[in-house]
Amino acid sequence: MQSIKAVYFFFLVLNAGIESVRAFAPASRDCRLGQLPTSISLTSDENYDDIVARRRWLNDISMASLVSIGGLIFQPNSASASGGATAGGVYLLSAKQRYNDRVTAGVQKFLALSSSLDSGTTDGVKAFFSTEDIGGWKDASAAGYLLANAFRRSSSTPPDNLPSVKKWKAFAKEIENLQKSTKKKDVKSIQTAYKKAEELLDPYLELVELPPVIEMRQ
Questions:
Q1: pTM greater than 0.70
Q2: 143: pLDDT strictly greater than 60
Q3: Tell me, what DSSP letter sits at residue 148?
Q4: Residue 154 in 3-state DSSP?
Q5: Tell me: the pLDDT tens digits for 29-76?
Q6: Which has the closest alpha carbon to 196: 207, 188, 206, 208?
Q7: Measured between alpha carbons, how far is residue 63 from residues 20, 57, 60 in Å?
Q8: Where are the domains of the chain?
């Protein structure tokens, strides 16, 4: 039923585009200035060639618009399944280009903390939270959420209902616990919070189509 409605809407728009072109152009190529429809008013600077040029221009604009609308209506199912919010997953592709590298840098920086924590050193964790650079938590926290929000099948879905956002928030919550423990300088609590956050990372990475933890460590 939705496909039938989409086809019907497409042809309505197609007909409207054709009629809009006819309204601004002569009825045929053989008509003369004196026989033009009354809806067209020529100024002293206009001639028949101007009308033909205008008709071609309007036709090009109408067809370009119709092609765009057709692409939105008849987008492939594979694009829809990819999680893109717009036709062809354009929004998703843009989000990947913007945030993939930033999220990857943040995850790798986070995973690199394990070696120092195993030895009881917390300086690396402090730097992870304090830096403004890419790879630190301040940047990764924003990029991670925005990337998760891009993996949607409908633009009307609230972010909190997206599986990718839910997984990100679960991970971010443990990172907040890690940050609190770091401020208290409680090494044991820091190690516990870190392990919990690490366990929640793979489900998020899978949903945003990034490599798993085992590959990120390399």
A1: no
A2: yes
A3: H
A4: coil
A5: 444 444 444 444 444 444 545 554 455 544 444 444 443 444 444 443
A6: 188
A7: 11, 10, 5
A8: 2-74, 83-216
Each residue's pLDDT tens digit, 86-102 = 433 676 788 788 899 99
DSSP 25: S
Please tell me the predicted confidence (pLDDT) of residue 42. 46
CATH architecture of 83-216: Up-down Bundle (1.20)
Strand, helix or coil at 186?
Answer: coil
User: Distance (Å, rounded) from C-alpha 132 to C-alpha 139?
Assistant: 7
Tokens 């990718």 correspond to 164
What is the Cα–Cα distance from 154 to 150, expressed in whole angstroms? 10
Cα–Cα dist 64/79, whole Å: 21
Cα 48 to the chain's mean position, in Å?
47
